Automatic annotation (TrEMBL):
Reactions the enzyme catalyzes: (sulfur carrier)-H + L-cysteine = (sulfur carrier)-SH + L-alanine
Entry annotated with the keyword Iron: yes
Protein's UniProt name: cysteine desulfurase
Needed co-factor(s): pyridoxal 5'-phosphate
């Protein structure tokens, strides 16, 4: 039985060229990038090359890229670092109800520290309303954190419009672009983004690596204290092999972005068309058009998410839900709750499928056939 991986929004397999790059650096380069001798300079060149690639990928400058241990650290540094650096100007933060927990839990932490956080509601596509954001803005608002594309439903937020709205306000604009990066074109200058978080393992790079874009002149209170790495913004000796692999993943991702977009959108259409042909009843959670190309979240009335996931896994198909299954109980997806309310049936019957570089048309057909058969069996149709 072929195993089919349709959970690339959770993590992606490392690209063979990335693996080769990481292995080469682990074998050939070991110097500390902060050392001034030839061994250190060799490592520094590798870090600088990756930083150059990262900056170019979003229209940023070289010194505006801070390497981190991943998207979670990038979100934490952006949110807590900004809140602490700007607390003399206010203690009000705005975010949305559908953010990744790396943002939501960080904002909850700030609330315990005495900050006031506004959680914006979303419509049934999972998008915030610009009017709600404008109404929520106050003189003491110091930070707005709205994700670029949602990890559960794929919905893309109106980032450029948010950036334009905040352009004349003191509030710093942060976006968690972990799921969107490498799938949509991002330009931090034209979109007026001040802080942007990225994770390597979402673009076929190594785990435990990411970056935070921080606009030149922005002050962040560092979370890690120690050496003067990353221009005193993130202490700790750089993970050179992982940074090298991340740099390679960025290069590959940027070159293939348009091809991937077209292929993944075709997969979405292929999967939904097949389900319709099989007369499977379903609804799309979020927007089919205004969403990330590789993510689709489907609701199947009359089914149960745990049964669906277990049966899919038995059929060799890896998918996921927005719910955390623990000890036989399901914690409803906070994203779907925000979109449809806590009593919606969709909280209990929705599955996320997310595509990646290893997938083929044949796999999508096979997965669609298996899914249709499972649903027919579970609903006795």
């Amino acid at each position: 039985m072929e195993r089919i991986y349709l959970d690339h929004a959770a993590t992606t397999p490392m690209h063979p060229e990335v693996i080769e790059t990481v292995m080469k650096q682990m074998s050939d380069t070991f110097g500390n990038p902060s050392s001034i001798h030839s061994f250190g300079r060799a490592s520094r060149q590798i870090v600088d090359a990756a930083r150059t690639s990262a900056a170019a990928s979003i229209g940023a400058d070289f010194n505006e890229i801070i390497f981190t241990s991943g998207g979670t650290e990038a979100d934490n540094l952006a949110i807590v670092g900004t809140a602490r650096a700007m607390k003399h100007r206010g203690r009000h933060v705005i975010t949305s109800a559908v953010e990744h927990h790396a943002v939501l839990h960080t904002c909850e932490y700030l609330e315990k520290e005495g900050y006031d956080v506004t959680y914006l509601p979303v419509d049934e596509e999972g998008r915030i309303r610009l009017s709600d954001l404008a109404s929520a803005l106050r003189e003491d608002t110091i930070l707005v954190s709205i994700m670029y594309g949602n990890n559960e439903i794929g919905t893309i937020q109106p980032i450029a419009e948010i950036g334009e709205l905040l352009k004349e306000h003191q509030a710093v604009f942060h976006t968690d672009a972990v799921q969107a990066y490498g799938m949509v074109s991002i330009d931090v200058k034209t979109e007026h983004i001040d802080l942007l978080s990225v994770s390597s393992h979402k673009i076929n790079g190594p785990k435990g690596m990411g970056f935070l874009y921080a606009k030149e002149g922005l002050t962040l209170t560092p979370a890690l204290l120690g050496g003067e790495q990353e221009r005193k913004r993130r202490a700790g000796t750089e993970n050179v092999p992982a940074i090298a692999g991340f740099g390679k993943a960025i290069e590959l991702s940027m070159v293939s972005m348009e091809e991937k977009r077209e292929r993944y959108l075709a997969f979405k259409e292929q999967l939904t068309r097949l389900l319709k042909e099989k007369q499977v009843e379903f609804s799309v959670n979020g927007s089919f058009e205004r969403s990330l190309p590789h993510v689709i979240n489907l609701s199947f009335p009359g089914t149960d998410v745990e049964s669906l996931l277990v049966n899919l896994d038995l059929a060799g198909i890896a998918a996921s839900s927005g719910s955390a299954c623990t000890a036989g109980s399901i914690e409803p997806s906070h994203v779907l709750v925000a979109m449809f309310g806590k009593d919606s049936e969709r909280l209990r019957n929705s599955i996320r499928f997310s595509f990646g570089i290893t997938n083929t048309k044949e796999q999508i057909d096979e997965a669609g056939e298996a899914l249709a058969n499972i649903i027919a069996r579970l609903t006795n149709k």
